[in-house]
Amino acid sequence: MTAIIIIVAVIVLLVVLVVGIYNGLVKLRNNRENAFANIDVQLKQRHDLIPQLVATVKGYAQHEKELLTKVTEARAAAMSATGINDKIQAENQLSSALAGLKVSLEAYPDLKANQNFLQLQGEISDIENKLAATRRYFNTATREYNNKVMTFPSNILAGMFGFQKEPMFEVPQTERAAMEQAPQISF
What is the pLDDT of residues 106-159, one digit of tens each? Predict the structure, then answer.
């Protein structure tokens, strides 16, 4: 009789452990998805502001058409991306195009003094800062999820139930080299 009670207690303990680990994995996966939904909100604002910025810049910089086209195409690609990984890649391309636009705009002092442009630039800077914060939160949620998926004993259940390691929202290699350079400041 005692042996049966011990066996039942061990089975109940294992079931509780499995349920706890599974629920923990689900919560972390949902937290990661929620973190990306927060990024989506910021990206929507960013996508809504870009056409206004491009239209303002077009009025001053007709010959920069190729750069503006690149920004517009990158925005369209970002808006049509589906899935977290596709959106990460598309948003990195858009960030790169916007960085190129910012560099190009330095040649237009009249544009930099235009109120509409300054307001749009300020709003985009604000959104970029919010995006950076939400990306950090997303990467934290992804790290926690990946740790749970990859550590014992939850990795056993993760493999059984199809949980897998997910990518972070990282800076593309093409932008890493530019980030390692000290910024040039001139007056």
Answer: 666 555 556 666 777 777 788 888 888 888 898 999 999 999 999 999 999 999
